[in-house]
Amino acid sequence: MKHLEDPARRFFHPSITDRERAIFEAGIALGALYHQFLGIPIAKREDVLKAVKEAIEKTMILQPFRESVKVDFNLNVIKGELQGPYDYSSLRGEAIDVKVVVRYGSARVKARMRFIEDLGFNLMYIEDVEDLEARQG
How far is Cα 54 from Cα 50, in angstroms, rounded to an integer? Predict the structure, then answer.
């Protein structure tokens, strides 16, 4: 992916590095995804899961500086084969595992959101940060 110029850069404090901005953008991506998509109806049917996965991935990649968005589901917490009128779930944090890659300037960040069993919490965290200029030099 080519480096994108950022017309909004002037609004950020000049001390903010590409690394810090990439981490900021990754946090925005995961937070937006969490609050926009959790709660939608979902069922353990291939066509439904595929449609929800594609909707999330295709819309979240539209945000600035996103290189990739990958969604997986934990089928153990999604109910419903749609056998009856109430046989579906609402998408919850425990059911979704998302990986987002953000590239901002010379930095690439890999962020993730998934349910961590021993924390009992759907955690958003940074898996990796790369300095792309250091790799080229």
Answer: 6
pTM for this prediction: 0.88
Task: Tokens for 88, please give them.
Answer: 């579906």
For CA atoms 64, 66, 72, 74, give the dihedral sign.
negative
**C-alpha 83 chain-centroid distance:** 31
Report helix, strand and coil shares of the chain as percent, to nearest 5: 35, 30, 35
Amino acid at 120: G
Q: Cα(70)–Cα(102) distance, rounded to whole angstroms? A: 12
| β-pair partners for 66 | 102
Residue 124 half-sphere exposure toward CB, CA atoms < 13 A: 16
Two tokens at 117? Answer: 């069993």
Q: Which residues pair with 100 in a beta bridge?
A: 69, 111
pLDDT (tens digit, 9 = 90+) per residue, 55-85?
Answer: 999 999 999 999 999 999 998 888 766 677 7
Q: Which residue has the tokens 């589901």?
A: 73
